[in-house]
Amino acid sequence: MNPSEEFVEQGISQQNLRTVSSTTVITLAYQSLGVVYGDLCISPLYVYKTTFSGKLSLHEDDEEIYGVLSFIFWTITLIALFKYVFIVMLADDNGEGGTFALYSLLCRHAGLSILPNQQAADEKLSEYVTEGSADTWRSSALKSFFEKHPRFRKGLLIFVLLGTCMAIADGVLTPAISVLSAVSGVKLKITELHENHIVIISCVILVGLFSLQHYGTHKVAFMFAPIVTAWLLCLTGIGVYNIFRWNSHIFHALSPIYMLKFLESTGVEGWISLGGVVLTITGVETMFANLGHFSPLSIRIAFTFLVYPSLLLTYMGEAAFLSKHHEDLERSFYKAIPETVFWPVFIVATFAAVIGSQAVISATFSIISQCCALNCFPHVRIIHTSSKIYGQIYIPEVNWMLMCLSLAVTIGLRDTSMMGHAYGLAVTTVMFVTTCLMAMVMIIVWKQNTFTAVAFLLVFGSMELLYISACIFKVPEGAWIALTVSSIFMAVMYIWNYGTMKKHQFDVENKVSMNRIVSLGPSLGMVRVPGIGLVYTNLVTGVPAVFGHFVTNLPAIHQVLVFVCIKSVQVPYVCEKERILISRVGPKECGMFRCILRYGYKDLQQENYSFENRLVSGLVQFVETEEQTASKATDFCGEFGNSDIEAFDSSVHTTTISYPEEDRARCSCDIQVMTSDIGRVESFLLKDESLQILKAKESGVTYVLGHSYAKSKKPSSIFKKFAIDVVYAFLSKNSTEPNILMKVSPTSLLEVGMIYYV
């Protein structure tokens, strides 16, 4: 693997990107074509057809064609080039882009997060960066507003989820419209081909596309960039040919005067047709979301010097062709292709459509994974598709769901114009959400003046609202699909988040008092059996209610007890050395600890190493370090990094201990050797408690998993009863449990059931 490929596969931090060579940046720019721009570059297949699909008619003076081209030019220039490439890409979250990255920045800088279990120790993470200039009165006022009004914090999350759900709808519509648009071109050469045959061929390609997802993008990624490059070169060549062949004066349409003339002459119909124009910038959100795998400079170079001019020449060339062929609106793209190169361009177009669909499908997997981290979607089984490329994932349930929905759209509509209306509404909504979040980032994070943020919001927000209003008028003509899909996902996300937060509230209100634990003595009033018990809980402090319920029905517990909490923090990634916090719960004699696993919103919440061995190794190091720091509690950083000590006397002393990298790599092997011969361990001069932990590991590890079943209260409304007793219960039953994330053997699992009322 060459260095440039390694940069793309592992991701490059913004700090490291400043030091890479110009050759590497150019290489990254080339490779970004296949990953970032697939969706954006296939738009010429259906833009003009969708725009002129309504009652808009063409006159001999070509004023409508010139007006649409003028709108296309200024839309790509202002929104894609100026807004996204030159402004929005500056708002990265430790190198990551996308809607969640903007929301994460706001959460850290303004305390907007509604995630439970947030700790002060989380702010010490290496990626939890909030440094910058001092707060201005504007940023302070905005922060204070959200602090005083929790409902607006909740409203902001719902607003972000709205954009997220529209992005998921995009993942349903993009494969359908892209593949159907590409395949429909063959009908020009094989005229006897029935429309049903076109739909069948498209469905076969869609089934094949989704069936190959479990192999991962990296299996075919090497050919993405060459195909998209070839596609862009084809578009450029065809565009230049059509300009000189049909209308060399088409560049006059770039004047904004033609936009005004267009709206004046066409009226309401012209305004509604703008829902098709917005399809020219589909994929700009994907460009921002893929920022983590490439540098901003490389993406800017690729867009500014290749993608942008290529798309403009393509749309100008197609407009030049239409100015002389008004009757070919339905298939203007393929009609404008010279006869001698039709079949090569058709083949490249089909491959480009598949690549564009692949990018959106992969982005949907990433979005669902991030929603799970924010407690806004049930935990699903996530599979790594590459042992080298971090972040390439596959979610089986989501994949087949997207396939069924895409097939339903393709078979049900059979019309790319109707799909385009839904597609446009989804895209414009996501862009408007980004604009609003970006305005807040300018004030809270960048500390810009209010005028700058308001100007940004007014300029770009007004344009996007114009397009949204045009798309809304197309709801009866296909845009309802985007609303339906996004509404379903919004309902699922809100119900899941509501039920999860109520569950956490129940756990907090019913946790076992520490005074009660201490009063029971070292044995906790139970029989202490050999072994280690891992009790999974949602709490980062205190003893969970499930523990009390467990010992009430089975008054025996393991010699060493560890409360394990899996939680998310508002950073994209948490490095391995900072992943786990080790804590002591209660007095030393009780033998109870807490293990907190922290994940970023782009981390995959599953462990591929031997979790038991690493945990035991951390407990031993924790105990040894605790002894060395006299009688004070220790904030321990061993192989896991910083560990938070919940000392019973509340006094905390912090030390940091670093270990060589090779020692951390041998963790699993060391524990196996240590537990196989306890006699040899004594030669290490370990303390008594350390020996007890190792002996307990040798006796076995048991995972105690609590199942909390939500029930609605009797006086609840019918809607709430349906949401909790039916929808949330179904989602809970089918969500992935922590034992799957930790790869726990069923023979080591003990499940405890509880019921709570909301």
UniProtKB/TrEMBL annotation:
Domain K+ potassium transporter integral membrane: 28-518
Key words of the record: Ion transport, Membrane, Potassium, Potassium transport, Transmembrane, Transmembrane helix, Transport
Transmembrane segments: 65-86, 156-177, 197-215, 222-244, 270-289, 301-321, 341-368, 389-411, 423-446, 453-473, 479-496, 517-536
Any GO MF annotation of the entry: potassium ion transmembrane transporter activity
Membrane topology recorded in Swiss-Prot or TrEMBL: Multi-pass membrane protein
Annotated GO CC locations: plasma membrane
Top-level taxon of the source organism: Eukaryota
Function noted in UniProt: Potassium transporter.
Family label: Belongs to the HAK/KUP transporter (TC 2.A.72.3) family.
Annotated protein name in UniProt: Potassium transporter
Taxonomic path: Eukaryota, Viridiplantae, Streptophyta, Embryophyta, Tracheophyta
